[in-house]
């Protein structure tokens, strides 16, 4: 689907610098740079596993992450993502954030 900067909203983690960069990349060339971080993956994974490519220390690495994301109590029996919140049911920003934390 379409990648929008407005999909990204900071959660409880104080990493606005990281999420601002993701939002900016989503706006460039219809999200081409974000799509390049997910090699050969343009659909939801039935297994819930994704490889996210990140440039770390000048080297590109594939980081394997799953779609299990930490949640916290939002009150009234509702849960919300503990970290990056994405609108329109988008996983891309949360998966990149998780891969960066894992790396």
TrEMBL record:
What is the top-level taxon of the source organism? Eukaryota
Which is one GO molecular function term here?
A: calcium-dependent cysteine-type endopeptidase activity
The cross-references to InterPro entries, in alphabetical order and at most eight, read: Calpain_cysteine_protease, Papain-like_cys_pep_sf, Pept_cys_AS, Peptidase_C2_calpain_cat
Calpain catalytic domain mapped to chain residues:
1-103
Q: Name one GO cellular component term.
A: cytoplasm
Question: What single Pfam family name could you report for this chain, choosing any that match?
Answer: Peptidase_C2
Q: Which GO terms describe its biological process?
A: proteolysis
Name the catalytic site residues.
16
Recorded family membership = Belongs to the peptidase C2 family.
Protein name according to UniProt: Calpain catalytic domain-containing protein
